[in-house]
What we know:
The chain is an alpha+beta fold. The chain has two domains: 60-386 and 462-496, Alkaline Phosphatase, subunit A, CATH 3.40.720; 397-452, 2-Layer Sandwich (Arylsulfatase, C-terminal domain), CATH 3.30.1120.10. The protein has helices at residues 85-93, 106-115, 141-147, 211-225, 262-286, 323-326, 353-361, 377-380, 440-452, 490-496; strands spanning 2-3, 8-9, 12-13, 17-26, 32-41, 61-67, 95-97, 100-101, 151-157, 176-180, 191-192, 195-196, 199-200, 203-204, 232-237, 293-299, 327-328, 330-333, 342-344, 348-349, 391-394, 398-403, 406-413, 416-417, 421-424, 471-472, 476-477. The strands form seven sheets. It has a ten-stranded mixed β-sheet with strand order 14-13-10-9-15-6-16-18-7-19, with helices on both faces. Strands 21, 22, 23, 24 and 25 form a five-stranded antiparallel β-sheet that branches. Strand 2 (8-9) and strand 3 (12-13) form a beta hairpin.
Amino acid sequence: MKIRVGVILAGTIVGTMAMTLVACTETANEEQTVQEQTLVLGEGVSDVGLVSESSADQYPNVVFILLDDMGFGDVGYNGSEIATPVLDQMAADGVRLDRNYVYPICSPTRAALLTGQNPLYHGVDAPMAVDKSLPLGLKLMPEYFKELGYQTFIAGKWHLGMANTDFWPISRGFDSHYGFLGGWTDFYTHVGAGGLDWQRQGKSLREEGHTTDLLTAEALRVIESRQEDKPFFLYMAYNAPHTPLQTVPTISGLNEAAEAGDRYAYAEMVTHADAGIGAIIEALEAEGILEETIIVFSSDNGGSLVHGASNGSLNGGKGNTYEGGIRVPGIVWWPGHVEGGRVMEQSIIVYDWLPTLLDAVGGDASVVDDAHGQSMWAAITGNEPSESQVMVFGARDHRAVIDWPWKLVRLENGGVREEAQLFNIVDDPNEQNDLATENLEKMSELLAVLTAMQDVESRRAAPTNRPGNFYVEGEGRDFEARLEESREPWAEAAIRGSQSDVSD
C-alpha cells in the first residue's frame, strides 16, 4: 500500500491523494486472498466556519484518532522537523489543544478514554497483563454511543485484555474490531511477543501489508460500507510510531532534516501515519459526510526518548508523569460547526473525552457512570471555559497531581515513596524549578490527594525484554528486521486458554 501525502493549500486540505490499498477477503474455505484497488479520494474541503448547529437529520459521526507514543515535539505545528502536513492543517483549521493530558503509558490512557474514569482506581497503571482486563462491569464508550443509535468500530490496537474473549472489544460494545489485541506488533509480520496478533472479529488473519496501511484501508472500508441511515463512531487506534522502529514501505522524502538512525526511522513512521489520517479525511469528504463528522486526534502518551521521539522542551517522556510523559499533541476538527484557527489553553484530560463527545453529539454527558471527567465541549467550541479540576496521573513508579497551576510529582521506587517535587507549570512548563520547600502548605494539600487514593492491585504486565526493538550491540538498530512466530496466534491461544505475559 502506497500513500502520497495530499496537497496542502492555504486554509484547505485538498483531495488529490492517490492510494493503492491492499484489501483482504475471505474465500469459502476461509483462506485469505489479496486484491488491489486504486482509489482517488475527494475534492477540496471547505474552510471551517463558525460554531453552528448540525443540519443533519441524525447525530454527527465521531472519529477518534489515537497515535501510539507520539511526543509533543513530533508534530510540525509544535516546531518539529518531522513532516506532518495533514495534522498541521487540521490544527490550523480546527482547535489545537495545547494542554492535552493523557496517562504516561498506553493501557491507562485507553482505559480512561473508554470509561470516563481515572484508570488508577481500577489498577490500570501500566501496560495491561495478558490475563487481566478492564473490569467487565464497566460500561465503555461504544456502549454509550450504541444507546444513541450509533454503529461502533475499532481499527487497531486494543491493549485492554486479551486472554479471554470476554475481554475483547467485540465483547465490550464494538460492532467490529480489525487489528490486534496486545500492546505492540511487528508492522509487517503482525507478530507480537512471538505470536501472530492480527485479527478480524476475533479470528486471526495472515495477510501482507504494513499495519498503518492496513488500518487506514480498514477505516476507508468502514466509512464506505457503513449503514448510511445511522451515525458511526470509529476509534482509530494506530500503532505507529510505537516500536519496533521499522522502515516504512515508501520513503516520503519529507524528513531529510531528521537525524539519521532512530529519529529518521521514527519520523518516517509519523509522516506515514499522517498520510493515513489524510486518507481518512479524503474518504469522509468523498462520501459527503466530512461536515457531519467530529474528528479528534491525540497521542496516547509522551514520546519514548530512547526510540527516536521528542517531547520538545518538556521534561521527561513515556513512562513518567513529568510533562513530557503526559502532555501530548491534540486537535478537534469539525468543519462547518466549530470555529477553527484557535488554540485552547485550558487543560483537558483523556477521561474528559467520553462526557465531552456525548455532549458534542447532542447526548447527555451526565449519564456516564461514576465519571471522573467532565464535558469540555463548551471550552472547545470557545463559548465558555470549564471549571478546572484536580487531575491525578500515575504509571509504574510515578504519581502526579495537578491542581492548576500547581503540579506535584512523586517518584516511587519499589514501593518506597521518594521525596516529591512541586512545580508551577504555567510559569515553569518545563519543570525546571522545584518549589516544594517554598510552598509546604500546597505540597501537603496535593500529597493528601494521593494518600486518599486507595491502593488497588495493579493489572500491570511483567516487564519484558522485547525482541521487537531489534537492537544489535555495537551495530545499532536494524530497521529492516522482522519478528517471526515462535508460538500459536494470540487469539487462538485465548480461545484455548493458553497464554503467557506480554508487555507494552
